[in-house]
Amino acid sequence: MRIVHVDLATSPSPLDGIGAVVTTLAHAQRKAGHSVAVLDAAWRGGAPLPIAAVRVIRVLARLRPDIAHFHSVYRPLNAVGAMTCRLTRTPFVLSPHSGLAPAGRARDRWRKAVWIRLFERPALRAAARVVCLSAVEEQDVRAIAPRARTTIVRNPLPDAPDHAPRHTGSRALTPIAVTLARFDVYQKGLDRVAALAHALPELRFEVHGELDHNDPDQARRLIADAPRNLRFLPPVFGDDKRRLLARADLYVQLSRWEGQSIALLEAMTAGVPCVVSEPVARTLGPVGHDLVVAVPDDPAAQARAVRGLMAARERRIRLSRQSAAWAREATDPAAIRERLDAVYTAARRARGARPATEEAT
Q1: Of 48 and 354, which is predicted with more confidence?
Q2: Which residue from 125, 131, 114, 128 is spatially nearest to 18, judged by alpha carbons?
Q3: What is the DSSP-derived secondary structure letter of residue 226?
Q4: In a designed cystine with 292, which of 48, 98, 274, 311 is the match (CB 3.0 to 4.6 A)?
Q5: Does the pLDDT at position 353 exceed 50?
Q6: What tens digit of pLDDT does each residue of 252-283 get?
Q7: Distance CA 267, CA 176 (A)
């Protein structure tokens, strides 16, 4: 099958979870024998929007893929690509990646409302399938486009290397709580992490990431006013990330919304007990929800939950083992690739597409 992934963010970022998902999917699909092209920020390079738009139209018209898979929303070049697919009768699927969550739409409300009306809602209706990460996201899509044809497929994680370190915790007098996130204070709930650090001086909190384009001044103020037991540190990758998670006593993610957090799934796979906000827990489904500690918004209640977890060693061990086993199975790239193969095949049949060919032109 000829597949084109379209993930045309403004600029590439090593912390882009969507980009990581596309890379993992493309690798698994090529491994299975599919012909896969990726149009992403690196492919665009520094081309200005009009020139990049013409390139997107030409490439999609030339490749004529069996399926085009668009990732994320509010992206002008994705909208150009979706329109091209509609005009050329190329079947396409769309993954919003949490971009249509109510809390996310509330940020810059009016501009997003206009964009959704003009571009996202028509694309959701025209897509052969809208690939949602959870039942929560499926509800978000249906709230905007009730007739959208939705299906649920989780995010994959790359296969863990054989040399990945085993989770042991910090073995230090001061337990370490880790967060891996862009410094987007509002979405990632970093203000909540700071409040939790204030309430738990007996823990050390580390947030690894970098400034985000969403209100960097707010992030700078939060960093400047952070309590002494909270540090904001550079991002970590590869073996450094695996070593960090191996020594973490807790993973904390108090986001106001997520699609399905790659960082959280990585922490679960590494066996780190996870403390998350209720909206994040709901994205894991009923089984995954019970393998993390979901806390309310109130900092005092969060502190009590964390102290209770730190005092319950057997509970932490059980969560570590069970969450790791569940996350590894739930994010297996080969299984998710098979699920997407079925989604793509159904999408092509729904559009009366031509039979798949073996090689891309």
Answers
A1: 48
A2: 131
A3: -
A4: 274
A5: no
A6: 999 999 989 999 999 999 999 999 999 999 99
A7: 14
Task: In whole angstroms, give the CA distance from residue 120 to residue 249.
Answer: 41
CA–CA dist 309, 276 (Å, integer): 13
Handedness of CA 238, 153, 100, 267 (dihedral sign): negative
**211: DSSP letter:** B
Distance CA 62, CA 80 (A): 15
Using CA atoms, how far residue 121 sits from 94, 126, 138, in Å, is 11, 9, 14
DSSP codes of every residue in 282-331: HTTHHHHHTTSEEE-S-HHHHHHHHHHHHH-HHHHHHHHHHHHHHHHHHT
The bridge status of strand 293-295 relative to strand 2-7 is unpaired
Tell me the sheet residues that pair with 92. Answer: 68
The confidence score (pLDDT) of residue 226 equals 96
State the DSSP string of 39-92.
Answer: EEHHHHTT--HHHHHHHHHHHHHHH--SEEEEE-SS-HHHHHHHHHHHHHT--E
Helix-helix angle 313-330:299-311, to 10 degrees: 100
Q: Report the distance separating Cα 48 and Cα 50, nearest Å.
A: 6
Which tokens belong to 157?
Answer: 């994680």
State the pLDDT confidence band at 356, using cuts at 50, 70 and 90. very low
Angle between helices 299-311 and 190-199 (to 10 degrees): 60
HSE-CB at 263 with a 13 A cutoff on CA atoms is: 28
